[in-house]
Fold this protein.
Amino acid sequence: MSDRYPSIYVVGGGLSGIAAAEALSHDRGRPRNIVILEARAQLGGRTSSYRESYDGLMTDTGQHLFMDGYHATRHLLKILGTENHLAFLDPFSLYLLIPPDRLSLLEIPLNNGQAGLLSGVMGFGGLSLISRLSLLRIKGALPKRNDAVDHMDARTFLRQAGQTKEAIDRFWELLTISATNLPTDKVSASLLVSILKESLFSGAGPRTLGYNTVPLSDLIVEPAQRVLEKRGVDIRLKTSVNQFHIQQDRVSELVASRESFKVGPGDHVIVAVPPWAFERLFPMERMNEPLVQNVARLSDPSPILSIHLWLRREVWIPIMTGFPENDIHWVFNKDAMTPSGQAGRIPDPSLFDFQYTGPARQFHATKSVSCVVSGADKLADRSDRDLVVSAMVTLKKIVSDLNALDLVHSRVIRERFATPVFAPGQGMYRPSSSSFLSNLWIAGDLADTGLPATMEGAVRAGYQAAEEIERILERRRIGGRGPAEIQETLR
């Protein structure tokens, strides 16, 4: 590394590390050496794809959803040149299979503010009138400060907000576990409040959901590597950082699997690893530091299961269908989520074995289905066969032609360390971007962005850490002058 320019080491090449490196590698006339140290064979972290042996195609390990209000993520994708590979539901529309077997459509018109939310909720046939009215009351219960309800779980908050048991069990539970990877009685209410403020009750009106139309390897992983390498970022894959060496109040060396990296006086380190990988980076004499102890309290993981199914014949199902009070939470029509997916059609209600309510909308043909279980502690140890059977039983509930359910291939992917458990009180332990060391900065899921461990939260954390470093580098670049003099210099 050059002695002339500062070096910035990014430990972890997931979304947060990518975002930090992207922000710091802009050509602004501020030269610096940026190094990403990633233990895996590719960038991307959990946002990854694999080549499926059955059809030879790149397939995402699990289905990710986006909100159109994910400003940081969309900014990153715009830089990578792949934002056009997102598709958004317009209007916001979700099919929910309400027990026992009632398929109902929640459709919220966009660009009509809260009036669209009102009309959508009142037209939703999946809940009783009193439950629908309770959904609309929740906006008035949202606190001004999200951390005001961090001490309680989301289920307690929903009850205090006047939600009926039916509304919680058949709507809020599915929304919460999908967004936070934890059930309502296990997750901090502040995270649910944050999600609601950025989705259904945002200042611009209700936000809609979207999905990637190309594999995540094409959306993020490969474009990120190309962009960062073009900017001169040194990407070291299969390079696991094992420990920090610390002298006085700064990181002085990174000990990795194959080599060590000296951290000079003007250099910085961004750590963008999961909480369970954070503690092992510190020497024994630093284990009692409050930051290390706090992060250790966030090190319990919550798993996600993805069950991919390939059928011999086409079935006609919605793009995405949610299943409240069911082992399988979501079924995604994978063929319809790609540009080559077939055009939809209005199904004949007489073909269905379940009660179908709401206006008829397009279903789409597919031979490829992805089923997702969030917060999957209870199912993670089941055999692949049992999980595939559960997925097929769930799929059967929304397929009109049961003779088409001829399974030819399946794959179960267990992400046992998918996301951290952010229980009530988590706000006390999630750190800000800065740390107790002068040159160590925090990104990744554990950084306090106010969001759960989502793609958006990871990207925001990376950008926040990069912004803190930029401030320090800028002060040094102009000679450490005070704020007034800095502004005058920058004019």
